[in-house]
Design goal:
This protein is α/β, with parallel strands linked by helices. It contains 9 helices and 9 strands. The chain has helices spanning 28-36, 79-92, 110-120, 138-149, 168-178, 196-209, 277-281, 286-303, 323-328; strands spanning 14-22, 54-60, 63-69, 97-103, 126-131, 156-159, 221-231, 260-271, 307-315. The chain binds guanosine-5'-triphosphate (GTP).
Length: 331
């Protein structure tokens, strides 16, 4: 912390947990990333793609905000849906501030009202956030702010754009001001406490979700089976690593002594039905190779090193309705 004569340190330091809630696609993950400043939560234009409560950290001299990104609260239709709602409720009962997100470019509907009612039962102050202000007119944003004010008793009502960054800093100020006084809860130089495996699995799922049809997103789960250092054998092991994303686990060789060259990652994309396989594999396996290429780029950016990504596709019949299979997938 700077501590010369001109720059007095902040009078108090605040810290605490913050959760964003809102209907699917409200922009919660994108806003989390904008606040934290690095890609830690997957985003997609398919509703309900955020399944894990992932923490992101914003550390400043005056406070530390621990963001818990939650799945959307919605009327459950499957066992997975019920578990997700339980996760959301448990998370919300435990946070210091809640950010309730409603997109500026869509009318407030029953889903938003359902959430507003749920929030009334909680003790934490709620900041109402009108998201995606860049996606619509100022007039529409003003109308949405008015409409949101009528949904409940909010500590603040703020318009933001996670894409342009407009008002994101102000939102952080408002939230930090509502946190209890206290020291940083996590080391100040990290952005998330999720394991590399969990983040890698999310990046693969994100890549697999791009361009898939409506019914598929909820059927995709990804697990990372193995991560091994590849030891340099003298041959060039690195030519086009993503090419080797095949339906079945490919051959992997090269464990002789030498310097570590690549990280081999073996991951499985789980589907619910065998009829979904062709969608993910694509013609001649091309889609799976594309998924591998995109995910590998993201994983390399995340880890700051080169990786060999080997993707395998498996069918885990009706996993969303089976408690044992849900446990196995980590839900
Ligand atoms: N124009 C614009 N688009 C945004 C903004 N924030 C999010 N989006 C887009 O809205 C879509 C949904 O964003 P997400 O952040 O994944 O939404 P979410 O609320 O986390 O969604 P779920 O995981 O379904 O709960 C994505 O296509 C984003 O690119 C924004 O500030 N401006």
């Amino acid at each position: 912390m700077v501590n010369d004569d001109d720059a007095a340190p902040p009078a108090v330091h605040r810290s605490g947990f913050v959760a964003f809630v809102g209907r699917p696609n409200a922009g919660k993950s994108t806003l989390t990333n904008a606040l934290v400043g690095s890609k830690i939560v997957i985003t997609s234009d398919k509703p309900q793609t955020t399944r894990r409560a992932v923490r992101g950290l914003l550390s400043r001299p005056d406070g530390q905000l621990v963001l818990v990104d939650t799945p959307g609260l919605h009327r459950p239709r499957t066992l997975l849906g019920e578990r997700l709602n339980d996760v959301v409720r448990n998370t919300l009962a435990d946070v210091d501030v809640i950010g309730f997100c409603v997109p500026a470019d869509q009318k407030i509907g029953p889903g938003d009202r359902y959430i507003a009612e749920e929030l009334k039962q909680l003790r934490a102050p709620v900041v109402a956030i009108v998201t995606k202000t860049d996606a619509t007119s100022r007039q529409r944003v003003a109308e949405q702010l008015m409409a949101m004010s009528k949904l409940g008793e909010f500590a603040d009502v703020v318009p933001v754009s996670a894409v342009s960054g407009d008002q994101v800093g102000l939102l952080a100020d408002l939230i930090i001001a509502k946190l209890p006084e206290g020291p940083a809860l996590y080391p100040e130089d990290i952005a998330t406490d999720e394991s590399d495996e969990a983040r890698i699995a999310e990046l693969i799922r994100e890549a697999a979700l791009a361009d898939v049809r409506d019914e598929l997103p909820h059927s995709i789960a990804v697990t990372v089976e193995e991560m091994n250092e590849r030891v340099d054998t003298g041959d060039d092991p690195t030519d086009e690593p993503a090419r080797n994303t095949t339906e079945s686990t490919g051959k992997h060789t090269g464990r002789a002594a030498g310097k570590p060259a690549l990280l081999d990652i073996f991951a499985t994309i789980h589907l619910e039905r065998s009829s979904q396989k062709p969608i993910i594999l694509g013609r001649g396996g091309q889609r799976l190779r594309d998924i591998g290429t995109v995910a590998r780029g993201d994983i390399e950016a995340l880890l700051g090193r080169r990786v060999f990504l080997n993707l395998h596709v498996a069918v885990l019949a009706e996993w969303q309705r089976d408690p044992k299979k849900l446990d196995r997938l980590g839900f």
